[in-house]
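Input record (one chain):
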Amino acid sequence: MKMKFIVASVLAAAASLSAQAGTLGDGNLSISGFGTVAAAKTNTDDVKFVRYNQAEGVGDSPRLGLDTNLGLQASYQATPDLSATVQVLSRKSTSQQFTTELTWAFLKYKLNDETSVRLGRTVIPAFLISDYQNVGYANTMMRPPIELYGQEPLESVDGADVNWQHSFGDTNVTVQGVVGKSSGKLFVAAGGTGSVTHYDAPVYGFAVTAEHGPITVRAAHLRAKVEVNDFVLLNGLTDNLTKFGFGQLANDMTTKGGKHMSFTEIGATLDWKNIVGQAEYAQRRAQDAVYVPQTNAWYVMGGYRFGKVLPYYAHAHYNGANQKITAPALPAALAVPVAAFLTSASQSSDLVGVRWDFAKSLALKVQYDRVNPTSKSGSLVYGPAVYNKKVNVIAAGVDFVF
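The corresponding structure, as predicted from the sequence alone:
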């Protein structure tokens, strides 16, 4: 009954707001939205499968929370050069309940035909599909591969960005620079369970995109000083390390006071005739000693369109790179938890799916993931500290825009 109620509520809201959008969209004010209603389950209840920065996940019973969301966006064109945009998104993230958050809220000023400035809250341009990663209808796959998108969970930044666009013959180039501060909640899967922490992170970086015919190529680099002071499990460990004379290791591992991290990404998309392709590679690196593992991640996806039906396949993988910290000889009571923090998880997935655009602004998707955690428990949560059995995930849902 609860699942049916949520589905009905989301669809009713979508229908009502779609009608309003048609009325208000004729003038300077326009309202639009997007959403997904989807259910997912796995073949086991020993662990839970989650999206990036998500607390609940799914087990062997169908649930709506993994992929279901509803986003609403309002834009107002005050003058030919000045506009304002606000977007809110309801979904399950670090809470086990559906919550609504402000994902976009900015003023945009057009300096000239090629350059614009935005002030306020924008999405961090970390990924190939950062601007629309939560819009299921705009993506081929049911969800972005967690193997790559889980490596940089900071989504929005409060500050300023500058966008410059220029055409070089048939190639359109966009350069985006961003600076500001990202704050929010992070779900940290540690200790076989998980906890919600709060972070603050000054962020700056850039992204460069080149579009030529059916091909889009993109590269991005971001740097942040991530500070988390309320990670109870880590704080308890570092307190014990200090107590027993390992203060330097404690200072190296902690995120108190902030630690410098970087994220570098390259990616490309292809939409040529009936062939669809997408791929990304990324590296997470630590400039300071910190417990957060350095990682390499990538995925590649390919599909072929048969009319309105698009079957696709993807493979994704992430693993640890060199650790910034070398732990000294420790008593067993400290060595085990320290190793658990400093050992990077790793995981690979194979997924197959099909997208059917069965009506205007509506797409049905069915996707099967075969998840293989190869170190620790991969990205799986609420299970044993070490879990290396393959997990099957099946999901089906409808994406819509209005």
